[in-house]
Design goal:
34% helix, Rossmann fold, binds adenosine-5'-triphosphate, 2 domains
């Protein structure tokens, strides 16, 4: 466990009853394939409180995407459950939005930027005037207010991912799930998008679960980092990131505490890769 950090513990952190917005309880996922069963996720339990920004890291193949799909209601669970505001998730919940890595595939090339952002609102039956306002606000929030009429293919990769983020934000979800959303953009754009996510999170108070395999990114972005073990997956550790709320790409990353957290998470991931698993994944309840 992390030295001088009493809020780091094995197993996922849970909240007292009624306080969690999103609860993952004993989640297990086994894929049945022609080649046999693959137990991708063994037993995951953790909670997200309303308005938290939590990053999830783990070795490649540890079931991050599987977990996110189960949370999003896109994939059924083998055992356990996901609860949103106390309600069991059995299909894609209205109040959840997902941003995937492949922005190129998630945007409709024949629709303009504003139309792409507007589409889920249209499908949800939001009145036209309100749609216009929400689209304008979301494009403003991601710095794309100047290109509403462009087509996605006329924009850079980073701008296209901003459109995908604007679309998720305009929908006003309670929970925003992000699956390695910046993996396909260059380093500078990635840094800008990280800052964008923190600013959108602060402004809108949305609850964010952000999956990444970039350790630095998880620490820079998160208020909490959940480390997954290697497959079959359990929560290896759940750490509070006690860095100042105002994050800055240069200053925050130069802080001794950032380095300390980075070393710790790196060492945990290395252990996970080598097959280390906590003796028992004790689930802790936050005080
Ligand atoms: N549709 C599927 N059918 C069968 N097995 C699958 C399927 N999807 C994922 N798996 C297996 O489940 C395990 C977890 O995969 P998953 O993609 O969830 O991990 P991940 O942590 O997101 O990986 P990465 O970091 O490489 O993206 C892997 O062993 C993978 O091969």
């Amino acid at each position: 466990m992390l030295s001088n950090n009493p809020t780091s513990h094995q197993g996922g952190r849970t909240l007292p009853e009624g306080q969690a917005l999103l609860s993952v309880r004993g989640l297990k996922k086994v894929y049945h394939t022609d080649a046999g069963d693959i137990e991708a996720v063994r037993n995951l339990t953790f909670d997200l409180g309303r308005g938290e920004l939590v990053c999830l890291v783990g070795p490649s193949g540890s079931g991050k995407t599987t977990l996110l799909k189960c949370i999003a209601g896109l994939l059924g669970t083998t055992a356990g459950e996901v609860l949103l505001d106390g309600q069991k998730v059995t299909g894609p919940p209205k109040k959840m939005a997902v941003v995937f890595q492949e922005y190129g595939r998630s945007l409709f090339p024949w629709l303009r930027v504003a139309e792409n952002v507007e589409l889920p609102l249209k499908n949800a039956g939001v009145p036209k005037e309100e749609r216009k306002r929400l689209v304008a606000e979301a494009l403003e929030a991601v710095g794309l207010a100047h290109v509403p009429k462009s087509y996605p293919w006329q924009l850079s990769g980073g701008m296209q991912q901003r459109v995908a983020i604007a679309r998720a934000v305009a929908y006003q979800p309670e929970v925003l799930l992000m699956d390695e959303p910046f993996a396909a953009v260059d380093a500078q754009t990635r840094a800008d998008l990280e800052d964008l996510i923190r600013s959108v999170w602060k402004k809108l108070g949305v609850t964010v679960l952000f999956v990444t395999h970039d350790i630095d990114e998880s620490i820079y972005l998160g208020e909490r980092v959940i480390i997954l073990s290697s497959s079959p997956t359990i929560v290896q550790e759940d750490i509070v990131i006690d860095l100042p709320a105002e994050r800055d790409q240069l200053e925050t990353r130069s802080l001794p505490r950032f380095t300390e957290l980075r070393h710790h998470v790196y060492a945990e991931i290395q252990k996970a890769k080598q097959g280390h698993r906590p003796e028992e994944a004790i689930t802790m309840t936050a005080k």
